[in-house]
Amino acid sequence: MASKIIVDQLESSGSNITIPTGTGLVVTDGIAATNLSGTIADARLPTVPVTKGGTGLTSLGSAGQSIKVNSGGNALEFGTISAGITEADMYRLHATQSSSSETILTNWERVDDASYGKIGTGLSVSSGIFTFGATGLYHLIFNAETAHEGGTGYVHLYLRGSTDNFSSNDDLARSNNYHDGGHVGYSSIGAFFNCTNTSTHKVACYFNTSFSNAGVNGATDNTRTSLSAVRLGDSV
User: Fold this and answer.
1) CA distance 7 to 208
2) Is 174 within a domain?
3) Which of 65, 125, 134, 218 can bridge 61 by disulfide, Cβ–Cβ 3.0-4.6 Å?
4) Is there a single domain that holds both residue 209 and residue 93?
């Protein structure tokens, strides 16, 4: 049977106590924190798991990353922080458009009031067809002010989308403005649009009327009719 030496106090003759390789030191009654000093080499420090209050990570992530739970829900990892809203833009009709038949709205300009601002590349427009600055899931809002010269009837408004550069299109949202005696009408319609390809996935605004002549109002110094687009996140 191995021998055991029991002492009341262990002292060193110098500044260190040396424990030979292969020999362990077990402290059974604790060591006061005030008696601890010095530096332990990194190689001798263990990786502390999550179950013990650590991270389980053994390296540092990249700049701008944060620690998050992995997809398996069983460990931590470094990941990129979401950038939030990366695209937001608004256009307005700068001049009134009138017609007695279905017409695409084309008199668009980007809002340029002193307090206006956009995020990202924003929209671009050609012949009334809007192209997105980046792919993603967008929240679109089409606001319109409509008017006619008199009588009773409807002005129909359409927010349309296409996945083939308007070789074909679908109604994303629509509204019917009822007019009686030349009153001005207002409509607000919206939709989510999943843009997976900026070359083919586009939107446009149309109107139609039961009057012989009706218009969608526009102005260059204030916003009466507008289309806004806010990117909510990646395309799905």
Assistant:
1) 101
2) yes
3) 65
4) yes
Digit-coded pLDDT (tens) for 41-84: 766 778 888 888 888 888 888 887 888 888 888 888 888 877 78
Is the full-model pTM beyond 0.85?
Answer: no
29 in any annotated domain? no
What residue numbers bound the domain in which 130 lies?
88-233
Residue 211, CA distances (Å) to 96, 157, 182, 189, 218 in order: 16, 14, 11, 22, 19
Q: State the Cα angle at 187 between 219 and 155, rounded to 5°.
A: 85
CA 236, CA 228: separation in Å to the nearest integer? 20
Token pair 């679908």 in the structure block, residue: 170
| Side-chain half-sphere exposure of 116, counting CA atoms within 13 A | 17
User: Quick check: 140 and 108 in contact, CB under 8 A?
Assistant: no
- Rounded to whole angstroms, the Cα distance separating 90 from 74 reads 43
pLDDT above 90 covers what percent of the chain? 51
Query: What per-residue string of b and e applies to 170-192 under the rule 16 or more CB within 10 Å gives b?
Result: eebbbbebebeeeeebebebebe
Q: Is 35 inside a domain boundary?
A: no
Q: Nearest-CA neighbor of 231 among 82, 85, 117, 116?
A: 85
